[in-house]
Amino acid sequence: MSAQQYAERIRVRGLVQGVGFRPTVWNLATNFNLLGAVWNDAEGVLIDAVGTLQQISQLIKSLEQTPPPLAKIDSIERFPLVEPPDYSSFAIIESQGGKIQTGIVPDAATCKDCLDDIMDMSNRRYGYAFTNCTHCGPRLSIVRSIPYDRATTSMAAFQQCDDCLSEYRDPADRRFHAQPNACPVCGPKLWLEDDSGQLHGTHDVIQHVADLIHSGAIIAIKGIGGVHLACNALNNDAVAKLRSRKRRYHKAFALMAKDTAMIRRFARVGVDEADLLESVAAPIVVLDQVGAEQLAPAVAPGQNTLGFMLPYTPLHHLLMNKLDYPIVLTSGNQSDEPQVISNETAREKLSGIADYWLLHDRDIVNRLDDSVVRWVDGKRCILRRARGYAPAPLSLPEGFEHVPSILALGGELKNTFCLITQNRAIISQHMGDLENAATLGEYQRTLALYSELFEHKPDVIAIDRHPNYLSTQWGEARAFEYEIPLVKVQHHHAHIASVMAEHGYALDSHPVLGIALDGLGMGGDGSLWGGEFLKVTYADYERLGHFKPIPMLGGAKAMYEPWRNTLAYLLSGFNWEDITVHYADLQLIQFLQLKPISNLQQMFERGLNSPSASSCGRLFDAVAAAIGVCRDLASHEGQAAIELEALVDLSAIGHHAECYGCRTERVDGKLVLDWQPLWVSILDDLKKGISASAISTRFHSGIIQAVTNVALRLCKAHTLKTVALSGGVFQNRIILEGVSQGLRQRGLTVICPHLLPANDGGLSLGQAVVVAAQRLLSR
């Protein structure tokens, strides 16, 4: 090394593997006439750079300003290299192992260059369904371990041909070290089979699938993170057939369209929604159902929104290019089971549902549901975080620098788990509802894989307080087996702590007012909570107020039979005999009188299988049933509330709109919201023949005003300046926007989930940071 030369070793941390980071470094270093090398290791990327100090500084500046499209740099550290190797050029060298500290990049939608390749008849990848490069394609879905190299993915089974190998080895090529790189000669193959295993459409399989969809068939399509079921979204017979076979009777189906122009025929797409649809994550985006054309009524019954996504793999692009209408593209499973990912399981589990199977021979290692987002209150809100977003890590806020290794296991529904390591939170993709045995098995398998991928060995395990959650029970068994501490975290405390962490609130931040509205969670006093006003720090909370507890008649049955909640509210606020006299002509009362009222009254009075819950979610169910929405049965969690929201007249909503009231009173030092006045108004409106839409609108306005007013009182009384909103009820756009805007107008700071779901999908992060804070502050 000459006297004018200088040498540095540069450590880059973040999402920097599998995104073309090394070739970017190589190109920049070559342009700046640097010598040295770049390689992957378990902590990220290492660079040896030999040249002038100015050249090295130019390299760093360029990396910071123009990283590869999928890269996310967390930090760049520079160290003098006193005795560098004798470099004669700048090279990319083999990856090295070690303790895992780097991240895995989420799967990315097909980039424009690869899309051009598959549509260009002169290109050797014309029509090839598995085309990708360092800027797009599978990542988490195919990885078995890191460092991220071909040998540690499911692409290890495919040896590259000479042409692909030439691209792979050429630093100037965008497929340089693209681990899934492949072509029709050497890569995965696609085929179509029927239920007997006979092959179809061997000449042009994609065209054959398009023809089958057009004829009304249901096709199982193996994609990037799982198998989907597809049919013509304009053909109501086909959609109804899919519902019947899949046993998914009411929940809305996801849709795929060729482009935003096609979506605009059926839904409103603003600039922000278009950006979400066309982003590298390519999620399902929930859109208002407004358009000149109508989809099959069975696509989204009882709703005024549609969930659309755009093609995100070459296979999807090739298929949608042959159709002039959207398709249903829903998870390939029986209702409530995990989406299938293997060919064998697809044939077994989807027999009797699919008519044909479009399969390929690249293994899916990690199941990834489609992510779901919605543009709410001027920002993106993630409703389900999976493909395209997971497992991108979240840096922990100031004060969490020396956090122990923590495993947080989440809740029962909408489950995720969270690993805390190296000042980062790694939140899993959406796992689903652990009530289902198959989902629990998938949860355990995925957790084992994450533990291996990130070489994560917890020092402590965090669980929910509810003793019947399978995640809780599994955490207890695991902690006992490995002889490590177990910490139970209150459900709603975790909800609010998750929002604080997402927004970067430091460990020693002032308390916030947390408003957690959801179905239910185990409270600190052993009862069921769900309409909570909490004074929250990371390490602790104080319950300041809540909805009045109401018995859940029949226990868990009340979650799926909304009429039980209506009856419970009526029994709680009125004399039943008086109700039957004054409102005898109401269809609601006539319906309830067909139930075993005497037995139900005894259950209510004696607390027999009727645990009391301060649940906001059950109030929504009760009001929905009162106006005839999902009165007898809800086939999926949240159905009644979603359909109730769909009835709202947005022109009549707001803080000054006509609304139903509630009364507040002090009970044991806490502010309690009693909804009895609301029920007087609803019964009177039903008697007057007021429409379901008007009642739903007045109810939503009433919730917004009551929650806002109580929050203002509590913030003033406790000198709180920030309000954090979370819980599944805040996935209701009307409630979230109404409460947020009302509080901001009064000068308060409002934070709510954007990177993680407001439902229990964000719970595991909250559990993890609560335990981390308690450990750090107890030192």
From TrEMBL:
The keyword Iron does not apply. Keywords: Hydrolase, Ligase, Metal-binding, Transferase, Zinc, Zinc-finger. The active site is at R22, N40. Pfam families: Acylphosphatase, HypF_C, HypF_C_2, Sua5_yciO_yrdC, zf-HYPF. SUPFAM superfamilies: Acylphosphatase/BLUF domain-like (SSF54975), YrdC/RibB (SSF55821). Residues 7-94 form the Acylphosphatase-like domain. PROSITE patterns: ACYLPHOSPHATASE_1, ACYLPHOSPHATASE_3, YRDC. It catalyses: C-terminal L-cysteinyl-[HypE protein] + carbamoyl phosphate + ATP + H2O = C-terminal S-carboxamide-L-cysteinyl-[HypE protein] + AMP + phosphate + diphosphate + H(+); an acyl phosphate + H2O = a carboxylate + phosphate + H(+). One of its GO terms (molecular function) is double-stranded RNA binding. Pathway: Protein modification; [NiFe] hydrogenase maturation. Residues 203-388 form the YrdC-like domain. One of its GO terms (biological process) is protein maturation. Its EC number is 6.2.-.-. The keyword Electron transport does not apply. Belongs to the carbamoyltransferase HypF family. Involved in the maturation of [NiFe] hydrogenases. Along with HypE, it catalyzes the synthesis of the CN ligands of the active site iron of [NiFe]-hydrogenases. HypF functions as a carbamoyl transferase using carbamoylphosphate as a substrate and transferring the carboxamido moiety in an ATP-dependent reaction to the thiolate of the C-terminal cysteine of HypE yielding a protein-S-carboxamide. This is Carbamoyltransferase HypF. It comes from Sedimenticola selenatireducens. The lineage of its organism: Bacteria, Pseudomonadati, Pseudomonadota, Gammaproteobacteria, Chromatiales. The gene is hypF.
